[in-house]
Design goal:
It contains 6 helices and 7 strands. The protein is an alpha+beta fold and 185 residues long. Strands 1, 2, 3, 4, 5, 6 and 7 form a 7-stranded mixed beta sheet that branches. α1 packs across α3 and α3 packs across α4. The chain is globular. The two termini are 30 Å apart. Keywords: Transferase.
């Protein structure tokens, strides 16, 4: 396993420059430049590859980037509060949440999961489902995100680490989407 410094110096030079040359460097003084660059990369375009790997392996395989991101997120304080996420689910995927609600069982999300502190912002990513989630250990990355404070479109992002368990409390049909209310366990 590479060190985060070596990984960042080889792969995240642009992200480190962006952090250095913005207000992002003023936040979270306990994080290194390399750690801040990992979060910035995830919120820009780093989420696709790692989340696909995690989903396909049911949370068992993780690459260097995902390992460093998970380690870095562990250093941030927990966000305790409501967050939102819009998504497009297939009928089968939606039925999985309905079944979990009816059986009062938990669901595991294998990948990193991006959410927003704002329901309106989440709904801008329009899908057939809106998740309302009571976060216990999500991490507020708004001040480090590519699309956070200081950007044209602040997503107000709270990020969940992989392999989190959620209890589905309610699934209701709104006018043109399903509202799934979950609690992080």
């Amino acid at each position: 396993m590479k060190s985060i410094e070596k990984y960042s110096n080889e792969n995240l030079t642009q992200e480190m420059l962006e952090i250095k040359n913005s207000n992002r460097n003023n936040h979270f003084p306990d994080l290194t430049l390399h750690e801040k660059a990992i979060i910035y990369k995830y919120t820009n375009d780093g989420f696709e590859e790692i989340n696909e790997l995690l989903r396909n392996s049911k949370g068992k395989k993780i690459n260097n980037f995902g390992h460093f991101l998970n380690k870095t997120l562990n250093k941030l304080p927990n966000f305790d509060g409501l967050v939102y996420r819009a998504a497009h689910l297939s009928k089968l995927e939606l039925e999985r949440y309905i079944a979990a609600c009816e059986s009062k069982s938990t669901l595991k999300e294998y990948s990193f999961v991006s959410t927003s502190k704002s329901r309106l912002i989440a709904m801008a990513y329009r899908g057939n489902v809106v998740f309302r989630v009571l976060s216990r250990t999500g991490k507020d990355v708004e001040k480090l995100s590519k699309f956070g404070k200081g950007s044209l479109f602040n997503e107000k992002e709270v990020l969940f680490r992989p392999n989190r368990n959620f209890k589905v409390l309610e699934v209701t049909k709104e006018s043109d989407y399903a509202l799934i209310t979950m609690e992080e366990i």
